[in-house]
Amino acid sequence: MGKLSLVLGAVLGGLATVFAQSISASTYAPIPTIAVGPPVNNATGWRVESFGHGAYMVTDNQYNGIFLVSDKGVIVVDAPPTLGHRLLHAIGNTTRTPITHLVYSHAHADHIGAASLIGASPQPKVTRIAHRLTKEILADLKDPGRPLPDVIFDDTYTLRVGNQTLQLSYKGLNHQPGNIFIYAPLQRVLMVVDIIFPGWAPFAYINQAEFVPGVLAAHDEILAFPFRHFVGGHLTRSGDRADVVRGKAYLDDLKANCADAIALSARDGNSLSAGPVLAAVDRADPGNAWAAFKTYLDLVTTYCANVTTEKWLGKLGAVDVWAFENAYAMVESLRIEWNVLGPFGVQPGV
């Protein structure tokens, strides 16, 4: 081994040690009771929750999907890779009825990346159903783990298999194009993925939302359903109407706090005033427009994150974990989608 390799090895080893120490030293607020769900079976790694009348949620307490058992076949919604083969085991331990249909909630691999396992030989072939936009995304990606759907729709689609019914509908862009609402009317079970996380704050950047206004609108669209049980695709438990109301209140509050931060930055004489901040950046990094924008955005985002966290800590799980990232996503959405531009908006005429 050459001297350079030894040096690089020592440097990388040192960085790994520092990184490990920083992880072990990193602590977040305790998880509140509202975020805690039933444990998974240690032997199997999954848990099945019954909603009655043949409707079930299966979860590993990180990801979840649903399945409906009819007298003609099983309908499965989503196939998360973290469950993988365990999803088939969970269904097989619940019923001997074969899987006949697989519904894709949307195209993201973390929710349907194990789709190719369902309907693979020697199982019976399954019919795959998704929104047209989901098929278009998957056709571009050409991922063998996510086979193209056989049936697509634009607005609504009613799937009937024996004595079970699922109503599928598309309300427009929110988390991702093609992300659908999945409703079982008999059991009053609604599944909408990556919008609400029962008992928890959203994942980073409002769960990587492609259109934040659509995510906020989706909360009202969800509440328009007469559901009793809610499945959000992630984490420790199923939810109810109170979880949706709580999730909406969190995002509404985040939006209001971020709008306040932007408004303050457009005024003189406070700690968020943009003028002195931008002048200081220009002195330190003259002509570097990106440095100016980053400093400004970090300032208002940090304010919004801190105000929101102070109110919501202990009311939802992990509010502090993605506080900055979620505030950043909201600040940027306010600026570029809601036209709340603060000091970068249209200025008064001279």
From TrEMBL:
Ion transport among keywords: no
Domain Metallo-beta-lactamase positions: 62-234
Signal peptide from the UniProt entry: 1-20
The entry's keywords: Signal
Residues annotated as transmembrane: none
Keyword hit for Signal: yes
Superkingdom classification of source: Eukaryota
CDD domains, sorted: metallo-hydrolase-like_MBL-fold
Entry protein name: Metallo-beta-lactamase domain-containing protein
